[in-house]
Amino acid sequence: MPRNGEAVRKRLQWSALELFRDRGYEQTTAAEIAARAGVTERTFFRHFADKRDVLFDGEAEFSEALTAAISNAHAALGPWETLLVAFDSVKQMFVANRPFTEPRHRVIAAAPALQERAMAKSRALVAAVTSALCKRGIAEPDANLVAWMGMAASSYGVAAWFKDSSTDLGEHMRRAFQLASRLAQPNATQARTKAKSSETGTRGRKPRTRPAS
Amino acid sequence: MPRNGEAVRKRLQWSALELFRDRGYEQTTAAEIAARAGVTERTFFRHFADKRDVLFDGEAEFSEALTAAISNAHAALGPWETLLVAFDSVKQMFVANRPFTEPRHRVIAAAPALQERAMAKSRALVAAVTSALCKRGIAEPDANLVAWMGMAASSYGVAAWFKDSSTDLGEHMRRAFQLASRLAQPNATQARTKAKSSETGTRGRKPRTRPAS
User: Fold this and answer.
1) HEC profile for chain A?
2) Dist. CA A101–CA A110, nearest whole Å
3) Helix (H) or strand (E) holding B151
4) Whether the model pTM is above 0.80
5) In 3D, which of A64, A69, A61 has the Cα closest to residue A87?
6) Which residues of B touch A192 (CB under 8 A)?
7) What are the pLDDT tens digits along chain B (213 aa)?
8) Which terminal Cβ of chain A has fewer Cβ within 10 Å, N or C?
9) Cβ contacts (< 8 Å) between B109 and chain A: which residues?
10) Is the complex ipTM more than 0.85?
11) Which candidate in A56, A140, A146 is best for mutational testing of the B interface (most B CBs within 10 A)?
C-alpha cells in the first residue's frame, strides 16, 4: 500500500467519491473512506480537515491558475473577455480533472452538505477573481458583479461539455459566455431566437409558450 | 414580556442581531439571545432550528413574492427584463426590512458560518427563480444562468442603495441591471467608459491603469 503523500491523497479522494456515489454521503464515514484506501482514519485527517473536504482538493491550485491568467490577459481586454480568456487558458485543468469532477458533480447534487461546501468554494473563487479584476483597474463592486456572472457562464459551459463531449471545452465555454451576454440583455428573447442555431444546450428545450417580443 | 408568537420571534431576531454585532457571532449563544429577548432557550428553539437561522427569517416569503412576480410579468418580456420587473415589484419588502437587513449585512460579512448560510439561502432563491423562469418557457440551464446573473445584479443594486439612500431602490436596481448588461459584453470597457455618468457605485473607483480598448 503506498504511504507516500500524493498517492495516498489521491486514493482517499477516489475512495470517498466511490463510497459517496454508491452509499450516499451521509451514510459514509471518514473511517470507511480510510479503510477503502488502505490507511488509518488518522491518516485521513492528516490530509483533509473533514469528510466534505476530501472532494474539494485542488481548488487552491485552480484559483491560482485562473487569477494568474486574469492578471496576464492583454491589457486592452475588458473584464468579460478577460474572464473568457482566463477560463479558456485553464481548460486543460478541467480536462485533466474530468474523470474525477464529472462523477463528483452528481455526488454533490445529491448531498446538501456538499452543496454548501461547493458554494463556499465558489464564493472563495469569486473573491479571488474579483481581487484579480480589481488589479486591472475595475472598481470592486463592478469586479464582483462581473465575477459572479462569469462564474455562472463558466459553470454553464462545463455542464454543457459534460453533456456533449464531442465539442471541445473551449468552444462550449465561448458559447456559454456568448449566451450569457445575450441573456443579460433587455431584448434577450429576441436575441436568443435569432441566434438559436449557434447555441449550446438547446436540445431538449421546452417549447416556447409565448411569442418572442 | 410578550409571549405571543410573532412579537417574541421579532424580539429574538433583534436580540440576536444586536449580540452578534456587539460581541461577534461565535461568541454569542442561543441561550444569551433568548435571555436578552426575555424568553427561555427552549422558546428560541421553538422558533428557529439553530443560531444561524435566527437571521434568515422571511426568506420564504420573499422567494414567494419574487417568483409570483416572475410568473405575472408580461408574457412578451425576455428573462432579463422579467427579473428586473420582478425585483422592482418586491422593492417594498427590501424597504420595510432595511432596518434589519442593513446591519445584518455587516454581521454576515464578519462571520464565515453566516456567509455559508447566506449562500445556501441565495442558492435556494436562485433555484426558485430558475423554476419560475422555466415555467415561462426558458430552458432549465439558460434559466439557471440568467437567474444567477440577475441575483448578482440585484445584490449590487441593494448594496449601492445601502451606500446611497438619496436615490430610490428601484432606480439603483435599474442601474445595476444596466451595468450588468454592459459588463457581460465583450466590449464592456468601452461601454462603461461611455456610459460612466449614468452609473451607480462609481465614487471611490480606482483610477484605470490602462486605456479603454
Assistant:
1) CCCCHHHHHHHHHHHHHHHHHHHCCCCCCHHHHHHHHCCCHHHHHHHCCCCCHHHCCCHHHHHHHHHHHHHHCCCCCCHHHHHHHHHHHCHHHHHHHHHHHHHHHHHHHCCHHHHHHHHHHHHHHHHHHHHHHHCCCCCHHHHHHHHHHHHHHHHHHHHHHHHCCCCCHHHHHHHHHHHHHHHCCCCHHHHHHHHHHHCCCCCCCCCCCCCCC
2) 14
3) helix B140-163
4) yes
5) A69
6) 78, 142
7) 445 788 999 999 999 999 999 999 999 999 999 999 999 999 999 999 999 999 998 888 999 999 999 999 999 999 999 999 999 999 999 999 999 999 999 999 999 889 888 888 899 999 999 999 999 999 999 999 999 999 999 999 999 999 999 999 999 999 999 999 999 999 755 444 434 434 444 443 443 444 433
8) N
9) none
10) no
11) A146
Helix (H, G, I), strand (E, B) or coil at B118: helix
Q: Which of A176, A183, A213 sits opposite B146 (nearest CB)?
A: A183
Q: Find the radius of gyration of the CA atoms of chain A.
A: 20
